[in-house]
Design goal:
This protein has helices at residues 55-61, 64-67, 96-99, 212-216, and strands at residues 40-44, 50-52, 128-130, 135-145, 148-157, 167-179, 184-197, 206-211, 226-235, 242-243, 254-264, 269-270. The chain has 271 residues and is mainly beta. The protein has one domain (3-270).
């Protein structure tokens, strides 16, 4: 399980060409025939999940123990320079690299460093761009305890049009627990249903998340030993001008993708 150490050539996925920046990589361990049937599906809505786009959301949508630093001050949503804003910015104070240095290795380490926004300088070098097929990765360690999950993202297309209300998407986040008896990865699917995310929004992003105990209830122990994860998405509404299929060149529609900036599992432990 060495996916977080994956190497890549030069500036692959960091070019100036929108269509060349997609990251469609699924680890071979998650290939067809190595994944079992979905064991459980959990629906995440705007009622039982949360959506953060401002400092006020940090204060009002996270539990008190998760919205404040050790001094009792609320985290800043916009301060997200890795290391410099630790204990002050939300992202730098809750990133996976700070929990375990194994996440500092490889291409996907950009999703674990605490930078939850586009920084306006490095652009593609801070994000992972996906189409509907998404990506799937193995972790080098197994997840042993977990409080909540969050993902920072935004939508983008090839145009410069404004989407004042965002684009409505369904986001599938799947954790996989390895079954040593059957030699299969068993999926546990968390489906975010119909969330409007910021799109073509410059530096601004949307953070979606949920608390495991609230969503899973008595099932919460089922994710112990999770060692893989995937992210895919679909559109939750009909849009005449965009397509999420990067291979669709015949329709004349603009290609729409998700720009992922951060995967957060605050207070999690790994073994």
């Amino acid at each position: 399980m060495r996916d977080v150490q994956e190497l890549y050539d030069g500036h692959a996925y960091d070019t100036g060409d929108f269509m060349q920046n997609y990251y469609p990589v699924w680890n071979d361990g998650l290939a067809a025939g190595r994944i079992g049937e979905v064991a459980k599906t959990y629906q995440i809505t705007t009622t039982n999940g949360f959506q953060i786009e401002s400092d006020d959301d940090i204060e009002n949508k996270l539990r008190p123990t998760d919205s404040k630093n050790t001094d009792g001050d609320y985290y800043s949503f916009t301060s997200d320079t890795p290391h410099d804003d630790a204990e002050y910015g939300y992202g730098p104070s809750n990133n996976l690299i700070a929990i375990d240095e194994v996440f500092a290795k490889g291409f996907l380490s950009r999703l674990y460093d605490g930078r939850i926004h586009c920084d306006g300088v490095t652009y593609a070098q801070t994000r992972v761009q996906i189409d509907q097929g998404g990506y799937g990765t193995l972790f080098e360690k197994e997840l042993t305890s977990y409080r909540y999950f969050a993902i920072s993202l935004k939508g983008a297309d090839e145009s410069e049009r404004s989407y004042a209300g965002g684009i409505d998407v369904n986001l599938d986040v799947t954790f996989y627990v390895y079954d040593y008896d059957d030699n299969l990865y068993i999926p546990y699917l968390f489906r975010f249903q119909n969330f409007a995310i910021m799109t073509n929004s410059g530096m601004r992003t949307t953070v979606l998340g949920f608390y495991f105990d609230l969503i899973m209830g008595e099932d919460i122990a089922l994710l112990r030993r999770a060692s893989a994860m995937s992210v895919t998405f679909s559109l939750a509404a009909e849009y005449d001008d965009i397509t999420i299929d990067r291979n669709d060149i015949a329709s004349g529609k603009d290609h729409f993708s998700l720009m992922l900036y951060e995967i957060l599992l605050p207070h999690s432990t790994w073994n």
